[in-house]
Each structure stands twice: as structure tokens, then as C-alpha cells.
Amino acid sequence: MRIGIIIGRIGGVDGVALETEKWIEILEKLGHEIYIIAGQFEERMINPERETLVPEMSFFSPESFWGQKKAYFHPEANEEELLEHINLYSKVIYKKILNWVHEKKIDLILSENASCLPSHLEMGLAIKKVVLNTGLPTITHDHDFAWERGDRYVSPHKSINDFVAETFPLRAPNSVHAVINTYGYDFLKEKFNRESVNVPNVMNFDEPFGLVTEKNNCLHRNLGYQCDDILLFQITRIVRRKGIETAIELISKLDDPKIKLVITGNWNDDAGSAYYMELIDQIHKLKLGERVSFSYHLFSNKGYIHESNDLIYSLSDAYAQARACTYFSTYEGFGNAFVEAVLARRPVFVNNYEPVYWPDIGSKGFKTAMIDDSKLTDAAIADMKDIIYNEKLNREIAEYNYELGKKHFSYQVLEEKLVELVEKALKAAGK
User: Fold this and answer.
1) 178: phi then psi, degrees, rounded to nearest 5
2) Which of 39, 139, 341, 363 has the fewest Cβ atoms within 10 angstroms?
3) pLDDT tens track for 263-293
4) 210: in domain
5) Three-state secondary structure along 295-361?
6) Contact 76, 47 (CB under 8 A)
7) pTM above 0.90, yes or no
8) Do both 8 and 136 map to the same domain?
9) 319: closest CA among 256, 231, 424?
């Protein structure tokens, strides 16, 4: 079957992009032919002949940027002009997606988060039109919903809120939902009477990950640290909900100059770098200096050797040199970084983040140093110290979590879910 994936951006390290790559791998294993249409390719995914770029679908396109700003942040915006803009550019995107569907002979559409979170209003409406007008079987992979983001997607304009309510999430008769947590499953059922399939984020437990190698053995030195320094890693982007300030506070309270915090992500998604600057101020106030390293320039998803012969490390390299990982998020749709740490056999210090951690992950029995409400209690810090300094305990926890992760969050689990989803989508479309 020819499956067409519609996505705003792919090839980066955000959860939607990473999980889409895994779906592609499993769908190809199942014998499907994959085609991608996207607004941005940060890295090429498959055969270039199966990849189609539509710049208007990018979150950073002038069309999308203008629509987002006027819809959500400018109460003085002219509503009629705004709706005209959304309709005009949705038609542009609609025609390009429709041409792609016909040209590539797409049998089934997979919309990656573009039909649930209104972060690109024009693309969401265009996809809705394509799905309804073609009648093709459609799977919407719903990572995030507007109501999970506080007031971020609440507009000062009634017409925009009405539009979002009608368009997101997509509720076409020929579509089925894949959600990534129990909360999403329950909400879709209660609010829209829509059934869904709960598909957790997964990792490939059949491939080595987080192994110490000759390449990453020099990571300490390239970070400017000594080989016997103890590295805690925050392997996330720098955005407020990641709770990085708690990780920095932990470094201060551990009060050991040999313990360093390495943050691998960039602040590209931090509007105005406001949160990043708050973290810098916190580090300055706590006098942590070189004990916290912002090292995004040394890391990419897969790693490579730069043309200047400088090493760019992979996320696997980062986990390989981590004594433990900090993951004090306040909110996550699921938690890729948690599963990655489990796969890499590294303990995790975690905040009981909403709405997912305990219902979908923690309750399965993972052993962590867990805090609530981002509060580093004396007991929690004592637990973290035990894990950091007691190598035997560190290894035991890591091995236990690895086996549990393999059971619940492996590619085998994803394969079973995708087979189920394709069958449900075909049935919904009367195929």
C-alpha cells in the first residue's frame, strides 16, 4: 500500500519528527511504500523521489507565522481579514497536497500531529478538505491537543476559536485516531465520542544504543571537563515545560564540583530566548559557572564528523557518557527522552509530569528517583545521590528498567499497533 505522510517538519529532534521516523521504519518493514510531504526537511528521510517539499506547510513560513500571530497574540487583528488569509493559503496547500495524492497514487493518508494541534491553521484546514474530498483512509497521529497547552491556543477572536473547534482534531468519517497516552484516549471518547488506538512512543530495543565507544570516550574532554567528572545529561530541547531550572537547582544542591550538567538541546523553539536567559540568570545567581554546559553545538540526533573535522556527537553518545539523566518536565505528551534513557540503560531523575508520567509510564513499575510538583525534597536528593555514587545500584536500576521498557515500549509493540490502525482506517473508509 502507498502511504502518504503529511507533516510540518521532519528530520529534527522534536518528538513528532522522531516518532514519525520510527513509524516509517515499521511501515516499510510491513511492506508499505512511504511518501512524505512536508514544509521542512531538516534531514532527508528516504528516497528523495518520495519526498515532496511544500514551503507553505512550514511552521516558519510567512503565511503560517502571520496567521499564528494574528490569530492568538493580536486582539486588535481584523477577524474577517484573518479568516480570508486562512482560507486563501489553505487553498494553496490543499491544491498541492491533492496533486501529491494523485501524482503519488496515495492509498492511505497519515497526518502527523497536523490535524490535532492548531499550530498551522492553514495546513490543518487543507488536510481536512483533502481527507473529506478524496474519501481516502486516514490515520491522524495525535501527539498534542490544543486543550493540553493551557491558553496557548485560545484566541481573543471568537471566529478563530469556532474555526479551531470545527477543524481540530479532524473528525472525518473515513479517519481514525492514534493517540500517545491514556489522557488523549479518554478525552476523545468523552468529548467527541471518537474511538482511538493508544500507541506509546517506542524505541528499537533490538539495536545497541548508548554504548561507550572510542568516539564518545573523548566526550568529557570536548565538553571541557576532566575524565573523572560525573556527567548528568538533560537530553531535551530548551523549552520551559522541560523543567531545566529544576535540573540546575539539583546541581547546586548536590554540592559536588565533580558533578556537571550537560544540556544537549538548542533554544530554537524558545520564543525570544526568554527561558534560556532565565536559566543563564539562575546559573549566575547560584554561581555554578562551568558546572552547567549548554552544548547543543556538539550534538545532533545521529552524529557525524563536521567538515572542519570536529566531532558532532549523537544522542547515543550522550547517553553513553551519562551517569544519569534529568527529566523534570512539567508536561509531556509522552516522553521520548525517558524511553531513550531506559533503552540506553541509564537511570532517570523524573518529575511526575502531567498528564502522562504516572498513568502511562511510572505505574508500569519503572524504578526512578521521582519528585512531584518540581520540588527537590531532601529524600529525593538522597535517592539521587545513591544512584549517582553507588555504581552497583546504578547498574541494577538501569538493567531492570531496560527489561521493563523492552516489554512495553519496543518496536514489536508499535508493529502490532500499526497493523491494527491500518485495518481500522480501511474499515472506516469502507475499503
Assistant:
1) -115, 115
2) 363
3) 999 998 887 899 999 999 999 999 999 999 9
4) no
5) CHHHECCCCEECCCCCEEECHHHHHHCCCEEEECCCECCCCHHHHHHHHCCCCEEEECCECCHHHHH
6) no
7) no
8) yes
9) 231
Beta strands in 192-256 (DSSP E): 196-198, 230-234
Helices then strands, each counted (H, E), the chain:
14, 15
Domain housing 417: 2-202+411-428
The confidence band for 308, taking pLDDT boundaries of 50, 70 and 90, is very low
Q: How many residues does the chain have?
A: 431
**For the ranges 44-48, 179-183, 221-225, which has the lowest average pLDDT?**
44-48
Q: Give yes or no: residues 154 and 221 share one domain.
A: no
The CATH number of the domain holding residue 254 is 3.40.50.2000
Percent of the chain with pLDDT over 70: 97
Environment class of residue 408 by beta-carbon count within 10 Å: exposed (0-12), middle (13-18) or buried (19+)? middle
Question: Which H or E run includes 217?
Answer: none
Mean pLDDT value of segment 345-361: 96
Count: domains in the chain: 2
In a domain, 211, yes or no: no
With beta carbons less than 8 A apart as the criterion, state whether 116 and 145 touch.
yes
User: Is the pLDDT reported for residue 35 higher than 80?
Assistant: yes
